[in-house]
Design goal:
Layout (H helix, E strand, L loop, with lengths): L1 E10 L7 E6 L7 H7 L4 E5 L8 H7 L2 E4 L4 E2 L6 E4 L1 H4 L2 E8 L11
Length: 110
């Protein structure tokens, strides 16, 4: 998960072939990424297998949360929104405040 930055994915918007760089701004208020940002954690690794068994933190993580998802293709920022119960599908969350795209390898020389 990330707050803002760039990434690469297959372009599903402009019809170009291959990987393309995309960048997005801050996530909508109330998302998990926004929550990590407001907590002041520029980088975080959270082991979801070790959440407290009860209390406000456990209750928050048991509820569906809004997150942004990026896969192998990108169709637009609005399509990034997902609602998930994090511990139901992930063992851990890795969060960084800002990202850059992976640097492409140079073309192969014949």
């Amino acid at each position: 998960m990330f707050h803002h930055g760039a990434f690469q994915a297959m372009d599903q918007i402009g019809g170009s072939r291959g990987l393309k760089e995309f960048a997005v701004g801050p996530p909508p208020a109330g998302t998990v990424e926004d929550t990590f940002e407001r907590a002041g954690w520029p980088r975080c690794l959270l082991d979801l297998r070790r959440l407290p068994p009860s209390g406000p933190v456990a209750e928050w993580f048991r509820r569906p949360q809004q997150v942004r998802g990026v896969g192998s293709s990108f169709t637009g920022e609005a399509d990034m929104a997902m609602e998930v119960v994090l511990p139901d599908i992930y063992e851990a969350v890795i969060y960084v405040e800002a990202t850059t795209r992976a640097r492409p390898n140079p073309p192969a020389q014949p």
